[in-house]
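Minutes, structural biology subgroup

Action item carried over from last meeting: produce the structure token record for Glycosyltransferase family 4 protein (Isoptericola haloaureus). EB confirmed the sequence was re-checked against the source entry. Recorded below for completeness.
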Amino acid sequence: MQRRHIHVITPGDHFSPRTGSAIPTVVHGLASAAPSSAPRPSVVVARGTYPDRYPSADVIEYSASPPRPRDRWGDAVCSRITATRPGRRREFAAPLAEQGDWAPGIVLAHNAPQAIPLVDPDVHAPVLYAHNDLLGTYSRREVAKVLDRSTAVVCVSAFLADVTRERMPSYLHDRVHVVRNGVDTTQFAPAAEGSGRDRLEVLFVGRMVPSKGAHVALAAMGRLGDRDVRLTIVGSAGFDATQPLDDYEKEIRREAAALGARARVLPFVPRDEVARLMSTADVLVVPSVWPEPFALTALEGLASGCAVVASRTGGIPEATGDAGVLVEPDDPAQIAAALTTLHDDSAALAAAQDSARRYALAHDWRRTWDTLAATLPPADRP
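Output recorded by EB:
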């Protein structure tokens, strides 16, 4: 029997379908996949965030303590002297202030090492849920102090788990577990009918920041000659299409315009529209130039029946499994070669798309929930 999962997300973050940011997506995916026999999960969310929230979990609201600029510098000093970060910990005091009123459960602190010491271990099992490399600025002494009372440290990929263990004292290594992300194979699914077109439709979806590699996808397009291929780039620097463009976004639009009708750029769109665009694309490119811990977008593309061409870096190969076409990061020539094959060989494209969907169906959120449930302590353990 499982205890209730209580998800604590970063103060100021949301639990809303408006955006595609990773942590709310993961929490919603896990909550939706919980079997009816499991206690209904809860999510601790700051009051005043997006009011249209996912229906998959009960929401526990609190009044957030706004970050103070001086806390960043104070934490930098204190972490070296006392192995504490009082400013960051103060931010998590508000989400956990009422934990004594909650039924005993498992507190999953998402990307929040500083929340772990604040969880009462006599009532709740504290678990760090790592979506990113969280301990890069921590000494091993501080890691021990912060995570000593943790029940487990969940990482979204084996790549991230290895990085996390390297930053820990050895006695904590066996608390690290890999729980790879899943995908909603109902929301993300192929269109009911094929497009019937000759043109290869290629899609990029992601934040418009250099690390995501939209510029690499555009450079690859410039190598394709006269092949009938169109690239659609979707995303903004943040999760708001109305924000002014920064320098990188302006450059992406200039490069896309230079390709004429072969490339177009759309700003950030809501999740439902992302799913629609993926369902009608032939290929999804994930040209990240940094070692992403997982890359949910790649798995969503597979579920949508896209052939996925992705960078061989970080946890991305774990997201695609054997269903993706992997290329070296920051290498437009390799992406262009993969797109050329998929354009010129319709059988290769169909095989990649079929493999994609089958892989995603075997890696949905229920599989992730089952893995997580097997990792966490049952109700009869502290």
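Discussion: The first strand starts at residue 4 and ends at 8.
Next step: EB to file the record with the rest of the batch.
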